[in-house]
Amino acid sequence: MKRARDGTAYTLDGTPGAPAVALIHGLGLTHHTWRWHAPALGRRYRVLQYDLYGHGASPLPETPSLALFARQLGDLLDELEIGSAALVGFSLGGMINRRFALDHPERVLALVILNSPHERGPEAQRRVEERARDSASGGPGANLDATIDRWFTREFQLRNPAVIDDVRAQVLANHPDSYALCRQVLACGVGELVRPAGTITRPCLVMTAECDSGSTPGMAEAIAAGIPGAETRIVPGLRHMALVESPEAFTGPVLDFLGRAL
After folding, report:
1. What is the mean pLDDT of residues 154-175?
2. pLDDT tier at 196, thresholds 50, 70, 90
3. CA angle at residue 160 from 159 to 166, to 5 degrees?
């Protein structure tokens, strides 16, 4: 991987001269989230993958916020002289790309929002904030078994122990303080994306999985309802990490959407 001036670890591969597609991973993970998707995207587009502040090989952040993560993306695009890009964000990444699109609409060609949370009911919000507090006291490993169960079906866990071990290792590699603060952004950052002052007007695809308890089909539909012309797709039967459990269920629809949007 290469290093940007601010220390952000990134790769830029794919088809020279083609539109750029930036891939933004989720909480506790790294750019490796996209290893099943990037090759197919790279046959048509320039593909930017990077580690969020405090994740993977990128440096620890200042106090993290959606605004800080959006600035990280903007600074990286500036340094690479990419004027505009399609933004594909998973989970926390789908919050970051919405924040960026609200702040810098002229730099966004299209948005793909995958398994990303939105407005929660009081009980769901309480649970998410409780998990963030657990991380503050117990580190990235707090309740990790329960997290894996929310992310993957039991059948996939049994058949693919190497993938599960890799995901566990990514989460456990996070700095405890940084991870807890980033988890707080996931818990509370949705507030600034619900009924925001601005409107996202770029072409948009919103996807989630039928059994994703933290980024539900209802949330996907609510996100799409706030973006004129946005498309919604629900992948049946899977949970939060459906794009890892069934990459083909996401790569095809994303390529189809980008082919029409770019």
Report:
1. 96
2. confident
3. 160
